[in-house]
Design goal:
By secondary structure, the protein is an alpha/beta fold. Helix content is about 40%, strand content about 15%.
Length: about 300
């Protein structure tokens, strides 16, 4: 394990870095990547280097164990033992799939695709969950929390609400674990004459945030009110995770185990040169492997690395 320490000085806007005992100061993330490769011989992005820094402090749990922790935490959300959770880490390696699968396994009905509150209103909302993706305004957040006040709400890659001050204040009320959680909209504007939203309501639901942001980018008020699992990974950990997923009967069931293994072996050999390593990468290479193309390795290498 490489020993990495990185700190940032806000007054000088520079990083102070110590990599395997070699200390230097720079204002550029690209230079840290360059020095890391020069010192260790390994090519990694800045986010991977900083995640390695975290792992050097606590490398007791491998990536598959951390995914197990995600399942356990989501089960706690489903049963109401805790009001909120934050799952962070790079996209494309199963955060959303793991959360949704665990909620369904816990007996919750997915209302995300119903598209009609009339249908949802006749369902026991205490045993449901809904996924919200993409951008949301504070008022949109208020409506979502109101309409799902007894459900589990999964905010998936909906980082706008984690940056907006008004939205954060709404979330603070929704995530409090003491007494009644009353959410209020006290602005003079924002509700029309025909608006069906109340000025305040009691929120009895639970919230799960799935984000590609690093944990230190999540507002402290959200972090302090939530249980958190970080799924940041090195390239080797990504491949380790993909190997476990590829062995599941649910993953690409129409392709043979040999095709998936050959694809993963090629990705492993190209991990230092590939533009991206994710489940999408594995899916693409597996399909190329199964295509019957005699030069499938060359074709996959070109697509991965160019």
């Amino acid at each position: 394990m490489n020993q990495v320490q990185i700190s940032f000085n806000k007054s000088t806007n520079k990083f102070t870095c110590v990599i395997n005992g070699n200390k230097f100061t720079t204002g550029k993330q690209d230079y840290i990547e360059y020095m890391y490769k020069k010192i260790t011989g390994e090519k990694k992005s800045f986010s991977e280097i900083t995640s390695e820094k975290k792992e050097s402090k606590s490398d007791k749990f491998n990536i598959n164990e951390r995914f197990d922790f995600v399942e356990g935490l989501v089960q706690m959300i489903a049963t109401g033992l805790t009001p909120s959770a934050v799952i962070t880490g790079e996209g494309g390696l199963g955060k959303t799939y793991t959360v949704n699968k665990t909620l369904v396994a816990a007996g919750l009905k997915d209302l995300s695709d119903t598209g009609a509150l009339e249908v949802a209103s006749v369902v026991n909302r205490k045993n449901t969950f809904v996924a919200v993706k993409g951008y949301s305004t504070p008022k949109g957040l208020y409506r979502t929390l109101y309409e799902n006040k007894d459900s589990v709400v999964v905010f998936d890659d909906c980082d706008s609400i984690l940056r907006d001050p008004v939205a954060l204040n709404l979330l603070k009320s929704a995530l409090d674990s003491y007494g009644k959680r009353i959410i209020s909209w006290n602005a003079e504007t924002g509700f029309g004459r025909d608006d069906d939203l109340p000025r305040s309501f009691e929120f009895k639901g639970r919230v799960i945030f799935i984000s590609n942001l690093s944990q230190d980018k999540i507002d402290q008020a959200i972090r302090s009110r939530s249980m958190m699992v970080d799924l940041s990974m090195t390239e080797d950990q990504k491949i380790e995770r993909m190997e476990v997923i590829s062995q599941s009967d649910e993953f690409l069931p129409d392709f043979t185990a040999d095709h998936k293994k050959d694809a993963l072996d090629l990705i492993r050999s190209l991990k230092d040169d590939a533009k991206e390593i994710s489940l999408r990468t594995l899916i693409s290479v597996t399909k190329i492997r199964a295509s019957g193309n005699k030069n499938w390795k060359g074709m996959a290498t070109y697509i991965l690395c160019n």
